[in-house]
């Protein structure tokens, strides 16, 4: 009979022992608390407007493309690189998709938007792999390569249509961006919510059984129930809020927006990639100690190309969502998004020193960034002052990360 080791009682305050029993990342918990404070603050300052179903629904849609790219930026930064070109790649790929859809493929044909989407994403992957090749096989620092990419691809985004806005796009394509029709309604939202709850429960049961099997320390049963119950409650609350926003002048609930479904799918894929695949383990090993990873037999150069190609894939998906939301290919798409994406990853707990980062943290960081921006717009804060606030938040996040890394050492 296998004996399961009980967790050792931790020293410290009752709060610290409580958190240790829950086994929750304290930084992730702190970010969730910060998000709650931001939401409540903007809600009070806006006279009760911020935490309305309509605003939260729009916030979810607006956060989607940043969240998707932030999950890829986690791996880039974990591996001790940086990508300053993601906003420009998003912009040029969005223009390419719109140009193909409107001016190249036959208008009104059912497959034209699918072909434009696939070709645009393929271009994005090729761009990412090309930049990764320069970094991995030619030894050019990622900062320099992607800074050049920022300028080159922003220029190419203009050159595709010589600065013209390309519109309108295919109706089916625009569903990817959300909008009045880009949601799945109340019934299917509860179906998706039920599937998410089932996934959470199965994952909790399987995780506990795996710990028993390998004689790992188990969380107290009350902590397991509390963590799982909180996750289930969050899913139920999310679906209820999404269903509380109705289409204008109707009593038809919008439900979960399609961009949010794409974010959920990307998050599950990236979570699996980082935790359960050899590639994900290699990325974190490289970030922890590149020399040791090389000596251990990891092909660092190939993994580096793979990371940037993956970042290109995610930027391509984000480009499709942004163009679909605008129903146009515009030169403004992706402008300064590289800074927002990096800030989201860093605020989400990804260490600029490398080796540390989570997909969940990046998504939470994206929501925090978009919440700040949406709240400041709601309050009528001028755009220059918005940049001041965002810059200050980024500096504060890096300072907090520095303190955290020192405390770990």
Task: Supply the key terms.
409 residues, 2 domains, mainly alpha, 16 helices
Report what the structure shows.
The protein folds into 2 domains: 46-182 and 257-408, ABC transporter involved in vitamin B12 uptake, BtuC; 184-256. The chain has helices at residues 14-22, 26-45, 53-78, 86-104, 112-137, 142-161, 171-174, 185-213, 221-243, 258-276, 278-288, 290-295, 300-326, 337-347, 359-378, 383-408. The chain is globular. With 409 residues, it is mainly alpha-helical.
Secondary structure layout:
Layout: H1 14-22, H2 26-45, H3 53-78, H4 86-104, H5 112-137, H6 142-161, H7 171-174, H8 185-213, H9 221-243, H10 258-276, H11 278-288, H12 290-295, H13 300-326, H14 337-347, H15 359-378, H16 383-408
